[in-house]
Amino acid sequence: MDKIKVEGLNLFYGSYQALKSIDLTIRAREITALIGPSGCGKSTLLKSINRMNDLVEGCRLEGTIEVDGRNIADLDVNGLRKQVGMVFQKPNLFPMSIYDNIAYGPRTHGVKNKKELDRIVERSLRQAAIWDEVKDNLKKSALALSGGQQQRLCIARALAIEPDVLLMDEPTSALDPISTAKVEQLVQTLKKEYTIVIVTHNMQQALRIADRTAFFLQGELVECDQTDVIFNSPSDARTEDYIRGRFG
Amino acid sequence: MSAWKENGAKRMFQMAAGMAVVAVFMICGFLFANGLPAIHEIGWLNFLFGQVWRPGAEQFGIFPMIVGTGVVTLGALVVGAPVGVLCAVFLVYYCPKQLQAPMKAIVNLMAGIPSVVYGFFGLVVLIPLLRHWTQTSGMSVLAAAILLGIMIVPTIISVSETALHAVPQTVYEGALALGATKDRAVFFTVLPAAGSGIFCAIVLGLGRAVGETMAIMMVAGNQAVLPNGLLGGVRTLTSNIAMEMGYAADLHRQALIGTAVVLFGMILAMNALMAWVKRRIAS
Amino acid sequence: MKSLTEDHRMVKKIQSKKRKRISFGQIVVWTSALLTVGIALAIVGIIFWKGIPYLTPSLFAWTYTSDNVSLMPALVNTLLMLVVSLSIALPVGVAGSVYLVEYAAPGNRFVHLVNLMVDTLAGIPSIVYGLFGALFFVQFFGMGLSLLAGALTLSIMVLPTIMKTTQEALREVPALYREGSYGLGAGKLRTITKIVLPAALPGILSGAILAAGRVFGESAALIFTAGTLAQVAGSVTDSARTMAVHLYALSQEGLFLNETYASAAVLIVVVLLMNGLASWLAKKAERRREHG
User: Fold this and answer.
1) How many domains are contained in chain C?
2) By CB distance 3.0 to 4.6 Å, which of A84, B36, B141, C261 could disulfide with C51?
3) Which of C41, C44, C219 sits opposite B114 (nearest CB)?
4) pLDDT tens track of chain C, all 292 residues?
5) How many other β-carbons are positioned within 10 Å of the β-carbon of residue A55?
6) CATH number for the domain including A25?
7) Closest partner residue to A55 among C182, C190, C199, by Cβ?
């Protein structure tokens, strides 16, 4: 079934058109990868899904994005962002303890009971496969951890608000290979419960973990299909050129 | 509900920001409302260029005080600007690493010492010294200029330091790479490049000097006449206000407010000058 | 083939070039630095030397009399003045800065106007503030010479300091923090109060200490608004002299020279303590930024 439906999306930053007539469906409980060269609009599309683009001055949208059949422009933006979580390119943990970082989301959405928060924090950290590493140091500052651990913590933080969609904007581009592998493993287990859309610069990553892949070029969606179709028998010549590394 | 709270907060923050505007309007309003009519009554030329200040005889010429402010401030710049700029150069290019922190601590200390302490120091140390060397009363333009010069040094140092740091390292290294000695690179390449920033530092020091009251009052003699050379007594615009405000009444009082208006005008002119220089740097 | 002595001579020549020769520039800057340091140390040194021996208990008696010229009331009044004026200036200054940085679009005309006004306020001489305070608070609002009139006047005077440092501190908070908070579904107000302000706190505190320093050192503005009563203020409507005003009064009276030196010494010690606090906070903030 369709979790997210993008129809006729045109996005402008001032007079510059960043997205041209995008029609895309994201299926539930799948990993969809958005690939394409720098500046092709994949991050922009991602940020439109949870309306992070609302924060950008001069950003204008035409067309619709629907989550669970409802137009996101009509929804309360904070409620939308509770349902659609985001992990950013660089870990952006707050200068607080690990516990407070994870608890920030739930607290924002009304959870005040300490036992409840403890439960949520533990559950999220377990889901992010980092519980064992930090369980004795929950009160320590989150910024004292390594880059890979911080990013997994960001994933835990996003999971703590119990979204059903997880948007990930090049989550491993700042990480070393071992941390990258850990995060990829994590994402693959998460797909059982969450719909995941991941923007990646790294084609091999899409190949490794994505069920479906969408290829973007200069603001257009060139093609979207099952990952092995995109990589082995793409319909569009531009897709083939990108896959074969003829341009980057 | 949440949107209501959000908007309310935004309005509150906006009003707080507006307080600065309100404050300036209030200050200008009260000063101008009280001061301008007085100057008008005294006559602009009589006020600004009159050389006699004798409130008892309804004489309100502030020219001696304008000259007083000018002379003392100029003297302070002569004393403080070179030392301040050179100290900033020292801190950025010549100071050994271990001495940087102590030196900065001392500059911060100087910046923090209240003007009455400087005034007191001037009174009990500087004046007796001058008295000893010059056989005069010691309360003079010279004393005020020296003291004020010392007082503006920290301001000039910190702003000049920032200006020097703002010059890209590549400018300095480029000069050295062309074979210039360190002195040459610093004084003939970096320093000119930081020129407008240093100019701003000096203007800021100037502003501080113009606005200083207490310390000058304690060492300058305060005769309301044109200063008789470096060793003559002098009164500045600020001291004039401070000394007589306590007991002034009617036109006398409003003349003092008029003096404040003149000071205000001087400060605005200096701010405008700085803004103009800053715009030129940006372009 | 060159002889060994020729090589040796060349090496010596290079080595002598490397040996440090003091340049003219060095002389000039070192002289300025030593002059500055010398004068600073002379001021502090002389005042300490002449003043510290006279720091007797009677100088710290709770009640001021013309015999003990105690500075205690002035010290307490200074503290009260600090608390009242900062209680006004900090909330207004921080809130205003929050608007300018977090809500207003950059280049907005209102922002430009406010910053212009802030710069104007920053340049106004303290005696002019004193005059304004005397006209506006003391006379027009009928507060009389009082702690409140003085504090209100000073709060306007230090508003620029607070607003400039707070704006800078807020701008230094990484955009990533805000995005992270919004991404989790937090609204703007919550993001500002729970994430941005706490992160900017060290910078805001530095501004507060700078403002405190100005309040502490101020005399011209206070003489005409808070007056010179040398007793601990019983309420905000009482006249109250602060330490700086006290020192001025003492040196004008010219009677108790030793006690005046001692009072000046106390003033300098407070400045040292405040500077020390400020740099300790700055170092803590630095450490927090790096290791969290």
Assistant:
1) 1
2) C261
3) C219
4) 556 666 666 666 665 555 567 888 899 999 999 999 999 999 999 999 999 999 888 888 888 888 888 889 999 999 999 999 999 999 999 999 999 999 998 778 999 999 999 999 999 999 999 999 999 999 889 988 999 999 999 999 999 999 999 999 999 999 999 999 999 999 999 999 999 999 999 889 989 999 999 999 999 999 999 988 888 888 888 899 999 999 999 999 888 899 999 999 999 999 999 999 988 888 887 777 666 5
5) 14
6) 3.40.50.300
7) C182
Q: Per the domain annotation, does A248 fall within a domain?
A: no
| Cβ partners under 8 Å of residue C225, min gap 6 | C130, C133, C134, C137, C138, C145, C146, C149, C150, C152, C153
Q: The domain B49-282 belongs to what CATH superfamily?
A: MetI-like (1.10.3720.10)
pLDDT in tens, A4-33: 999 999 999 989 999 999 999 999 999 999
Chain B residues in contact with C126 (beta carbon < 8 A): 211, 213
Q: Which residue ranges make up each domain of chain B?
A: 49-282
Q: Which residues of B touch C185 (CB under 8 A)?
A: none
3-state secondary structure of A2: strand
CB contact under 8 A, C99 and B31: no
Question: CB distance C23–B181 less than 8 Å?
Answer: yes
Residue C192 lies in a domain: yes
Residue from the list C184, C194, C291 with its beta carbon closest to the beta carbon of A143: C291
| Residue in A closest to C198 by C-alpha | A95
Does residue C114 belong to any structural domain of this protein?
A: yes
- What is the least distance, in Å, from the CA of A56 to any CA of chain C? 11
**For residues A227 and A209, what is the distance between their CA atoms, to the nearest angstrom?**
9
Kindly report, residue by residue over B223-266, the tens digit of the pLDDT: 888 888 888 889 999 999 999 988 888 888 889 999 999 998 88
Whether residue A172 is contained in a domain is answered as: yes
- Are C179 and A141 within 8 A, CB to CB? no
Note down the domain range covering A31.
2-243
Asked whether the beta carbons of B62 and B240 are under 8 A apart, the reply is: yes
Q: Taking CB atoms and an 8 Å limit, are B23 and C117 in contact across chains?
A: yes
Which of C23, C24, C159 lies closest to B23 in CB terms?
A: C159
Q: Residue C120 is part of which domain span?
A: 57-291
Q: Among partner residues A80, A85, A92, which is closest to C179 by beta-carbon distance?
A: A92
Name the domain count of chain A.
Answer: 1
* CA nearest to C111 within chain B: B17
Put simply, the answer to whether A108 touches C185 (Cβ < 8 Å) is yes
Which chains contact C through at least 3 pairs of Cβ atoms less than 8 Å apart?
A: A, B
